Amino acid sequence: MFTHVKSTIRHIAPEDLRGRHLIKVVYVVLESQYQSALSQAVRVINKNHPNVAIEISGYLIEELRSPENYEEFQKDVETANIFIASLIFIEDLAQKVVEAVQPHRDRLDVAVVFPSMPEVMRLNKMGSFSMAQLGQSKSAIAQFMRKRKEKSGAGFEDAMLKLLRTLPQVLKFLPMEKAQDARNFMLSFQYWLGGSPENLENFLLMLADKYVLKNSHTPDCASLQYDAPVVYPDMGIWHPLSMTMFEDVREYLNWYNSRKDISKDLQDPLAPCIGLVLQRTHLVTGDDAHYVAMVQELEAMGARVIPVFAGGLDFSKPVDAYFYEPTTKSPLVDAVISLTGFALVGGPARQDHPKAIEALKRLNRPYMVALPLVFQTTEEWMDSDLGLHPIQVALQIAIPELDGAIEPIILSGRDGATGKAIALQDRIEAIAKRAFKWANLRRKPKLQKKVAITVFSFPPDKGNVGTAAYLDVF
Asked: What is its EC number (predicted)?
């Protein structure tokens, strides 16, 4: 076992029910950043809402390898009203989720599953809307999703983002009742992608109103009030000191150059510039301490920073949109660091390496990868004899290397109690120094550059110089 965190730390129940309707929620996710935002949303509902209270139990997908955690998960699902899952792409664990939830699917008031393996997506149930025939159905939505997936290496999540934008055209092919439930599913996805405690609070209230309490005969619970989702840009530029996200690189650079807190050196367009690639979910959930630390460290070293993000899993789009000067189309950055932990195009289940390679070749800048701990807490990783979790090695080191990524370094740990990222300052400094050196090396005159070549030779004195099994060493 690589993680020994008990799911009980995420269990929240109202201290005083006060005659309110109790709704039980169970969630299982890959991304720990949702833990803190969901917990905050539930605490606000339990403290302030006059009619409903929520008891919530949460699991990170890797924790289901523990027999004890899996048994607790099964017990929680047995009595749940609402089931939520997201990014369940690890095959053996996806099967465990299906085995635990499928027997209770018909009893659940609502089950909402966001991009995951097809067998997990089939658990979706929102009134008359279902994905039980996903991969087989000839419905308008199923055909739309299949076509979009075939065209997009970023996979299911980007296809759903496109569906959000074209939903009115799709819904006209559905009966009224199914159209309403399909609309509620896509509305749920907007809440989820929004990720803030406020969005998740309204997400839970919407599910309660539409599917848990709709048949309730309690007058106070006839209708719950909730706000529409706050929608964030699909992609853009973020900075921890800016009150807004930028969707135009000119606007960002104008703001950056007008900052009063930076030196004249950082305002100089010729200063080294580092591009950062970020996950939007960390920004909207407020789990951004490691991003803030990286920006601060790079600026303290004298580098300008352009931190870009995407809402889906195709990070080549913000790279193409924001790392070039809009008029001359020349690159603005001297080096790039991806902090997402994913391939440049695609998530855990599917990648489009040719598209990523094309974008990176066109940019022609050093491309580093730094990764947050996902499946282990900081303490578990530090105490482990094997180090990084093998699945994370595959997903977030080996796969990004197929894009051309270099120097994979862990930049942040994870708090076992809150799920939030913890910046590891010594590693933040190491990554920033490496990026700064790559940026300076690019600008260095070729006559001043020195090249060192390390040649494999083992065993020594056996004529093995420059040889290595299955490796193209030259």
From this structure: 6.6.1.1
